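Before a colleague's protein record goes any further, I have to sign it off. My question to you is simply how this chain folds and whether the tokens agree. I do not need a full report, just your reasoning and any doubts. This is what I was given:
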Amino acid sequence: MASIVPRQRWDGTTAFSVRWRDPKTRRQHRVTLRSEKETSSLARYLNDNGQIPAHALPDARTGNPSVPTVADLVQEHIDLLVRPSLGAIGTYQRILDLHIRETIGTIPVDAFGYRDTMQWLKHLNAKGAAPKSIHNMHGLLSAAMNTALLLGYVSRNPCRGVPLPTIERADDQCQVPHPRRVQSPP
């Protein structure tokens, strides 16, 4: 049975979460929505449909469970962020638009795997992206895949455990030691 849980946000407003347990896996899920009306609507929907979220119901056209594409998932992840820092949303949106949407964005999330992740990282490296930028782009995609895991789109995060390029830091470079001061004999 889905339940509604109100909670106080850091800014004093109230957020409403819907909690339910997946009937197959017995895993508990939670989604926080903007209004009490939306949460009660989702809770009613879940209770009427056996605790199965809308994205897991068969699509009327294909008969397959409908899942979002990678680009749709990353957008949903960005939209679900509760307290992003200033400028973070713009940065994430640029990463999505410039580096995800046209390359791996059309792949359905449940078909996206380790091989796709590695090919995408190689593509970014071949385009000349800096190692730190690749880490940041991978971080956004991995966080979105964690969201997909929580929402029940996938059973594992395909971004977890992939090797990333080494980031060289300024203090890691070889420093030439200062010559010792030679003291004159007494």
